Each structure stands twice: as structure tokens, then as C-alpha cells.
Amino acid sequence: MSFLPLRLQRRSEGRTVYFAHDLNLKGDVYLLYGFIVLLIRISVGLLGLVGNTFSLVVWSRPHLKSPSSVILLVLAVSDTLVILCGLWVDLPDAYGFLGHYKGNLMLDYIQLKYEMNYYTVWSMFVSRAVYFMAWTASMYLTLLLTVERSVCIFNPFRFSEWCSYARTCKFVLAVVIFSILCNLGKLCWERRVIGFYKVILDGEEFTMYKEVETKLYHNPIYAEVVLVWMVIVLKYLVPLTCIVTLNTITYIKLKKVNKERLTMTEAQKNDNKLTRMIIYVVLEFLAFSSFTAFAGTSNLFPSPTASCWFLISVLQIKILVRGNHAGI
After folding, report:
1. CA 129: distance to chain centroid?
2. Where is this chain's protein located in or outside the cell (predicted)?
């Protein structure tokens, strides 16, 4: 019988992945991270799935057909993909943490048979790429929704012309295509799945598979331009800055409009209520997105200590409310 021990610290092509053993942490910290944090992730993710299901049911009703409903429908779908892909990628960690907590530092039959086979590793590889595509779509759909509400408040008489149903559908399609193209490298040329070890357990031979980075991924120019600045600028800086700016201006305009409530039509009042509700939702989105942006971009730079790296990973919790998400 041949058994492959799980190394406590792995060095792969110049990158170091830290495990809790590097920090001399005890079993109670494994219990905290492996169970409590995981349960929080799953619970919040399930709540997010329930909320997105209700959103899909409500906004798909014919009498609510509007430009805003199109954006909210696709936004609910993208958030659902973020949650499902995030859960699928993270679930195997639960079994690993359980094994570590029990003192088992070696791969067992379940991990060899089900977790590290080709189809499971490939599905996680695809899920991770879809995760980032859906996350980018959620970010820019939120920006599109903010722009749509801003036009409604600042130019109510031209809103129907500028933000027609057909035009909004085209913008939503453009956002989806942009999100796919922006993260296509994660699926096609940055990583690949390979078989790297053969293990015999109880007379049965297993081939272990894993994801590895390609040479292009470690190219200094590609890493700096695509993996650092493109991510920081396109995925976080541009959309978050635009969302904050537009919502601030819209909120100031709403306060002025509320003083003229007596001269407003019923339709304008309803639009203002919808805008106010969306501003609150966007504020919640900003709170989680800003934190995950900080935690995600921090992974791009060397951490001074392993404990700092572990602290970031614990605090991040891969927030799944609106796309939890996320690291890079």
C-alpha cells in the first residue's frame, strides 16, 4: 500500500501556499476555520440563493416588465452562479479541515477516489472561471443599474427614450460578453488540469489531478498587466468609483426632489422610491465588495508573515451575500 502524505507547506513554481500548520495553530483554530466559518459561508450562501430565487420569481412577472427588471433578473442569475460556484469550490476544504483536526495528515480513499479525480478537479477548474465571470458581471450590472436610476432621476422626461427596454437588453448582453472575455484567460490559457501522481491504495490505483499555472501565467509582463493592473482597474477601481460617485450625486438630487414632492406625478414618486431602495442595496453591495477587493488585491502582493496571510483568509470568509466573494 502506497500513501501520499499531505505536505504542510507547498512550494509551487515560486509561490508558497501556507497551511495552518505553518503558524503552529492548534486544533481549535482548525475547528473555528474549518467548521464555524464554513457553516457561516454555507448559511449565508443558502440565504443568498433563497433571496435570488425570490428575485427571479418577482422580477420575471409580465406586469413588472421594465428596463430595471431586466438588469435585476440577470443580476440575480449572476449572483446565484457566484454562490453556487463558490460553494462547490470550497466544499472539499471541509473534509480536509476535518481530517487535519483529527490529526490525519494523509490523503484517504474518499479524497483519492472522489475529490482528486479528473472530473472533480476539472469541474472545480471550470467553476472557478465561471465564478470570476459571474462576479465581474455582478459588479458591472450593479453599475448599469446605478446609471439607469441616475438617468431616471436627472432626466425623467427622456428616460423612456434613453433607457428603453430593447436598449437595456443590449447593454446587459454587452456586460455579460465583457465579463466572459475579461476572465476567459482563467479558463483557457492561465491554468490547466494535469495528472501529477499515482497512488495505490488497497490494490487500487488512483491518478491524482490538480490545477497548475501555465508559463504565460508566470510571465512578468503578463502578470503585471493582466493579473495585477487589469484586475485592480477593470474589476474594482473603475466600477466601484463610478458606483460611489453616481450614487452620491443621485442621493443629493433625491433630497432636492423630495422637497418638490407636491409637484411630482405618481409615476415620478414611484421611480424615486425604487431609486432609493436600489441605493440602499448598492450601499450594501459596496460594503462587501470593498472588503473583498481589499482582501483579493492583498493576495497579489507578498505577505510579510504567514500569520498575516492566514488572518486575511479568515477575515475574508469569501462573502457570499452578493458574490462573495473573492480573491484573485
Report:
1. 10
2. Membrane
Instruction: Give residue 42's identity as a one-letter amino acid code.
Output: I
For residue range 148-179, list pLDDT tens digits in order: 888 887 887 787 888 888 888 999 999 999 99
CB contact at 8 A, 175 and 140: yes
Please report where in the chains the cell 426632489 appears, as a residue.
257
Per-residue pLDDT reduced to its tens digit, 231-246: 878 888 888 888 888 8
Residue holding cell 493592473?
Answer: 229
Identify the burial level of 37 via C-beta atoms within 10 angstroms of its C-beta, where 0-12 means exposed, 13-18 middle and 19 or more buried. buried
**Rounded distance between C-alpha atoms, residue 300 and residue 302, angstroms:** 7
The CA distance from 231 to 228, in Å, is 5
Helix (H) or strand (E) holding 258: helix 238-258
Radius of gyration of the chain (CA): 23
Per-domain residue ranges of the chain: 19-316
Q: Which three cell numbers stand for residue 269?
A: 414618486
User: What is the rounded CA–CA span in Å between residue 118 and residue 195?
Assistant: 8
Q: Please report the DSSP string for 60-120 in residue order.
A: TSGGG-SHHHHHHHHHHHHHHHHHHHHHHHHHHHHHHHHHHHTT--B--HHIIIIISSHHH
Picking from 233, 52, 75, the residue whose alpha carbon sits closest to that of residue 142 is 75
Mean pLDDT of all residues in 50-64? 83
The rounded distance, in Å, linking the Cα atoms of 102 and 30 is 10
- Domain range 19-316, CATH class: mainly alpha
Residue 56, Ramachandran bin (φ over 0: left; ψ between -120 and 50: alpha; else beta)? alpha
Q: Could you give phi then psi for residue 216, rounded to 5 degrees?
A: -60, -35
Name the helix (H) or strand (E) containing 246: helix 238-258
